[in-house]
Amino acid sequence: MLNIKLMILILLSILLASNSVQAQTNFIDKQLEKKLVNICEALKSDSKIKLRRAIKDSRLKEQNVMNGLVCNGMDPITFALSENANVTAQYAAAKSGVDYTTIAKRQTSSKGKQTLTQE
C-alpha cells in the first residue's frame, strides 16, 4: 500500500514538472518581444539605418533575424514588400541570401492577381 502511494506521488510530481517545462517553452520575454516588434516596425519604415539599429539593439545576429523573424505572419522580406518598403526588403534579402528580384516579381504578380479577383 505504501509503495502504491509512493508511486502515485512520484507520477504526479513528474506530471507537474513536465507541465511547467512546457509552459516555459511557449513563453517569450516581454523585452525580447518588444525588440522584435521594433525590428518589424523598422522593416516597415523603409529605412536601412533604423533597421540596422533595431537589430543591433536586439543583440541578435542579423542572419538569425532575417531567417527566423515573423512579422504579421510573413517573413521579413515579404513583410517589407507588403508595406512598400523596398529598401529594407532589399537589405533583408541580401542578409538572408535570397534573390530580391525573384521575390519582388512574385510579390508584384500576386498583388496583381489579388486585385483582379477582388473586382
Describe this structure as you would to a colleague.
Helix 4 (62-68) crosses helix 6 (86-96) and helix 5 packs antiparallel against helix 6 (86-96). This protein has one domain (30-118). It is mostly helical and 119 residues long. The chain has helices at 2-25, 30-45, 48-58, 62-68, 76-82, 86-96, 100-118.
- Arithmetic mean pLDDT: 78
- Residue share in β-strands: under 5%
Count of all domains: 1
- The structural class is mainly alpha
Distance between the termini: 74 Å
Secondary-structure element sequence?
Answer: HHHHHHH
Overall, the morphology is elongated
Unreliable residue stretches: 113-119
Radius of gyration (Å): 22 Å
Could you describe the largest sheet, including whether it forms a barrel?
Answer: none
Strand element count = 0
- Summed up, the helix count is 7
Q: What fraction, in percent, of the residue positions are helical?
A: over 70%
Question: What structural keywords apply?
Answer:
80% helix, disordered C terminus, mainly alpha, 119 residues
Secondary-structure blueprint of this entry?
Elements: H1 2-25, H2 30-45, H3 48-58, H4 62-68, H5 76-82, H6 86-96, H7 100-118
Helix pairs in contact: 2-3, 4-6, 5-6, 5-7
Précis, in short:
The chain is mainly α.
